[in-house]
Amino acid sequence: MNKLNPLIVTSTVLANGLLFSSMSQAATVEFWTAQTQTDRLQTIELLADTFEALNDNVTVKVVAVDENEMATQMAAAVAAGTTPELIEVNSELIMAFGEEGVVDTSSHQAVVKDIGQTRFHTGALNSLKSPSGEYYGLPYHGWIQGIWYRKDWFAEKGLAAPNTWENIAKAAEVLTDKANNQYGILVGTKQDSYTEQVFTQLALSNNASEFDEQGNLVFNSPATLETIEYYNELAQYNPPGPQNWRARDYYLQGKMAMFFYSTYIMDDLSLAEVAKSSLTSENFKELSGGTFDPNLVKNTGFEPIITNKSAASYGTVSGLVALKNQNAEDQKATQDFIKFMYDPASYIIFLHMAPGGMNPMLKGIAEDPSYRTDPTGVFNLYGADQMKQIVSGFDTIRSFSVVDGKTYPASGEIFAKSVIPRMIYDVTIEGKDPQEALDEAEAEMKAIIAK
Amino acid sequence: MSSVLIKNEARLGLKLVAPAVGIIGLLVIYPILFNVYLSFFDVQLNGTKIFVGFDNYSELLGNPRYYNSIGISVVYLLGTVTGTTVLGLAAAILMNQEFHFRNLARGLILLPYFAPVISVVFGWQFIFDPVNGIYNHVMVDVLHLSDTRENMIGDPDSALFVVILFDIWKHFPIAYLLLLAKLQSVPKDLYEAAAIDGQNAWGRFWHVTLPELKFVIATVVLLRIIWNLNRFEDVFLLAPNVETLPIFTYYQAFSGVVDQGGAAAISVIQLLVLVGLIWLYVRKVLKW
């Protein structure tokens, strides 16, 4: 027996050591972010490292997942039992995940209670509420979409600013010169989310919607049909073939007059350095290079509100979503990490990754002097007034999934299934009859709702 | 041999194949059966399954897009399989001739096959970019063959054609490789005998080369059918609007929140089609 003793002692020490080390690494927060660009990932890694330094027994694992892949990756992870603790995605997907029952609403409740409900922009927080009043996610940052256009070209041709259907259509026609490789406008015609974003703003400005206040599907309406027809008219002035947001580079090259885009474009437009990186980096997969025009900012105008039957601004909120987790330690660590991410110091570092593109969802951040002095000087260039105007838009942003303060999570599923982008693709590229495409889209929506 | 010996040998044999049977069972049979099982359910992300009977199937078979994608898949298969086989055969015959730098040429021909899909796809997209691409530049600005710039890859009328062309260009080297290997083992005296019998080059090809290559060609065709019926990445990366069956499956089941039951139903049908096709081809066409 004596001979065995050293062995027992050694193994006991080893086992204790393992136990101890696993206790000291007790909690893991796997954080999936939709920010896939290298520089943004580095910033998020930095935040994660800081959090780890402040909490020695927590590990934060940052994973970059492309927004278009998020739903598929989540499904695979849930099926495999490797669900991340925390994700950062757009509100449509948040609502869809919420309805699938994988979201940890209790964590959200705890964080809101801790931070204070009144500190959030009310509209943004409410847009992520479930029909029964739980939070499917916490709003973290958001952008506003509008039309960016060449003011100098508009002035030359005596065109009015593109803020009504009539003005937009006229300018698109006048400024298209296909023989000289110049295009009037960019609207999305590929089967992806950019197409839906452009369509939604136009549809809302025509009082078309997916659901009414009673929650009935009212998508197949004359207003929607009119929007599709108008969209098809604009698509004639697009660069040839199916296009998505990547074609914004044609604008940077001086080959396009107008394009729908979010405030994310601000830094690309304003900074020669940023624009150069956009023209050569991973953002620029489909196009060959062009030279940067230093006067582009001066010559660019922005119209966030489009009017036809009513005025519509459109934007989207991205949020942090804690997912259901069996491990109480992980759950606690996730809540702590979310609170850390809302702490002004770390929050501003995050928002500064895309000045103008990522706008704060907590009141008071926009007025914070350290927020207004972003490292690249974008906010200075555009001026305080325009910045204030952009952030104020979050009180009134509209989308298909919120009608009169009520949310319709089915709208998120419809978004996730790309029903509208396919409808638009069919009409603009395949030449399908608008009413026929609309009928098909409605049938698909009904099938999704019925599930 | 005594019956004991035979029994022992059989037992040993069973033991020897057991690991292989186990692995195949775990990695092939089990997933197929589970897939069939799933196809009768509506599967939620959190794992809840609701039995829906044949709903997934009837939904699929009632979808006009499904039949459209079958049509596109058939054209894609015909185009790519014929294209790669013919081009591969032509290249193999050419490379079987004696000429200077033959080894270098043989190596170079394999390049498209070795290049990573994603990089050559972007290469093609640069070439055919409607605004900045070299193709439109040459067609419109240099040669003045056309007044309008075309998006060859995006336009649904030409996209299928471009995708087929891309696949032929990318995958003919594998056909070439297999055919050349066989071609090198065809005895020279067969050609000499055919020449003595008065056969010209065409006759020698028809009566000697083809019969000798028959089984390799058949193998190439079979492999290409199997690969291309399931081919996803080339088509999706280059022109996601060409809805072949795998692309249709992706949009139907994997875009947005995954519809696992629906996806399972599609893959069950696709498996049956593939098995049927291969059976038909092997038994009736090749008469193996």
Automatic annotation (TrEMBL), chain A:
InterPro entries listed in its UniProt record: Bact_solute-bd_prot1 (IPR050490), SBP (IPR006059)
Main location: periplasm
Coiled coil regions in record: none
Cleavable signal peptide: 1-26
Record's subcellular location: Periplasm
The entry's keywords: Signal, Transport
Keyword Magnesium: no
Similarity annotation: Belongs to the bacterial solute-binding protein 1 family.
Protein name: Extracellular solute-binding protein
Organism: Marinomonas sargassi
TrEMBL record, chain B:
Entry-linked Pfam families: BPD_transp_1 (PF00528)
Membrane topology: Multi-pass membrane protein
PROSITE patterns documented for this protein: ABC_TM1
UniProt main location, coarse: membrane
Keyword Iron applies: no
SUPFAM superfamilies: MetI-like
Transmembrane parts of this sequence: 12-33, 70-95, 107-127, 159-181, 213-230, 263-282
Record's subcellular location: Cell membrane
Entry annotated with the keyword Cytoplasm: no
Annotated InterPro entries: MetI-like, MetI-like_sf, UgpAE/MalFG_permease
Record CDD domains: TM_PBP2
The organism's place on the tree of life at top rank: Bacteria
Domain (ABC transmembrane type-1): residue spans on this chain: 70-281
Keywords annotated in UniProt: Cell membrane, Membrane, Transmembrane, Transmembrane helix, Transport
Family: Belongs to the binding-protein-dependent transport system permease family.
The protein, known as: Sugar ABC transporter permease
Native source organism of the sequence: Marinomonas sargassi
